[in-house]
Design a protein that fits this description.
This protein is an all-alpha fold. The radius of gyration is 22 Å and the shape is elongated. The chain starts with 7 loop residues before the first helix and ends with a helix.
Length: 212
């Protein structure tokens, strides 16, 4: 199929992609087709340096594809609609294997939830601790989406206590880090986290007494 068959907006976004970003999608589509014909699972592409611009470009493409998918019926036949969904799923898969962006992660989680793809949500949750910087996870913990927020808070609660202690000096992320430490102390029985929380509470009490 021609990309124009997917509608003007999808075609417009596709035309703005760099050739390297297009190649990511095209190779993934080819791998998916080969896997389908051979009954073998599709694999992620080879490891590449993180490309934030590719994330942004693919995120725009996925949004356009998903928007178009909601409009199918009147202007697309069954085969076209199937091809559109396959391209959208493939684009989401490419993003899932490479993204380190809080915004894109939230987009993927919201999409998986809309499609009732809970296995995909589990896969995304697993990627948080291994791929995302602590500051990005903290940003997700403040997300408006409740599912994204819960996943991020759980990832932080399972992070090394030393990592959370390092975040306490950050005026933006300190509150999120403290919440995670309190969870480690109460839910996971971390003695180190309990001592840190106790010291912080004592310091706060002393400060309140001094101000009075």
């Amino acid at each position: 199929m021609m990309i124009e068959d997917f509608g003007a907006r999808v075609a417009s976004v596709w035309e703005t992609l760099r050739s390297t970003t297009r190649n990511l999608v095209e190779k993934a589509l080819q791998s998916s087709a080969i896997a389908s014909s051979s009954a073998q699972p599709a694999r992620a592409g080879e490891s590449r340096p993180y490309d934030a611009r590719a994330d942004w470009e693919l995120s725009r493409l996925l949004a356009a594809l998903d928007e178009r998918a909601l409009e199918v019926g009147a202007s697309m036949n069954t085969a076209q609609a199937k091809e559109l969904r396959q391209m959208a799923d493939t684009t989401a898969f490419v993003l899932q294997t490479q993204t380190q962006s809080a915004e894109v992660f939230a987009q993927l989680v919201a999409r998986a939830h809309r499609l009732h793809d809970f296995a995909r949500i589990d896969q995304l949750a697993d990627a948080l601790a291994t791929r995302f910087a602590p500051s990005e996870i903290c940003e997700l913990a403040r997300c408006d989406n409740g599912i994204v927020r819960a996943l991020a808070k759980e990832a932080l609660a399972q992070s090394p206590t030393s990592l959370l202690i390092g975040l306490l000096a950050d005026p933006v992320d300190s509150e999120i880090a403290l919440d995670a430490l309190e969870r480690q102390a109460t839910e996971y029985g971390s003695e180190e986290a309990r001592r840190v929380v106790q010291i912080l509470n004592q310091a706060e009490t002393v400060e309140d007494d001094f101000l009075e």
